[in-house]
Write a structure and sequence with these properties.
Blueprint: E1 2-6, H1 10-22, E2 26-30, H2 33-42, E3 47-50, H3 59-68, E4 75-79, H4 84-92, E5 97-100, H5 105-119, E6 125-128, E7 131-134, E8 139-142, E9 145-147, H6 151-162, E10 168-169, H7 170-178, H8 188-200, E11 206-208, E12 212-214
Parallel strand pairs: 1-2, 1-3, 3-4, 4-5
Antiparallel strand pairs: 6-7, 7-8, 8-9, 10-12, 11-12
Helix pairs in contact: 2-3, 5-7, 6-7, 6-8
Amino acid sequence: MKLLLVEDDALLGDGLRSAISKAGFTVTWVKDGKSALGVLESGEFDLMVLDIKLPVIDGMEVLRQLRASGSSLPVLLLTARDSTRDKVLGLERGADDYLVKTADMEELIARLRALVRRSGRGSGTLRVGDLALNLTAHTVSRNNQEFSLSTRELAILQALMDGVGRVVTRSQLETALYGWNRNVESNAIEVHIHNLRHKLGSDSIKTVRGVGYTIARSPA
């Protein structure tokens, strides 16, 4: 997945590029709005992480021109501005998500993956042990047996497989499912996990009590 990172702070940009690359994205990093618009004209991307306060052309203007061109490229605004008004303004102007720079890096990665899923731009097959998730056909198989999963079950399974080898928190799973909309039932995640275990096997997903859930690299 190709990601355009637009961030003028050299230290932060380097850290973001490293972390996002390790999460499996191919990152192109530019440091001002004019460069961002130029790169967008010449290349195809799956999503963009955009700072608001940029030199030459600010992020809001980049976003305005992007949407005026008819592009539906998913955009996550990453900014130091944390007021509700700033968030509403960014979303009204065409951003798909909004995150404050003090947020945890794992939350950023989870939100990026959620944007890719919602946009339908993800492709390929994820494999963990004997589990296989086809991101194009939206099918799941284990030991060559195919299973029928709901849209939300698929989203949770993908988030867990994306995070193979580490614990994925309940909050991260909620973000993967609902994005900004947190008006969900308190036990929704637990219900989906229960259904996944029923379909894929009780050993498919492990609970880390008080933290979240994980899929081992080699399920039993």
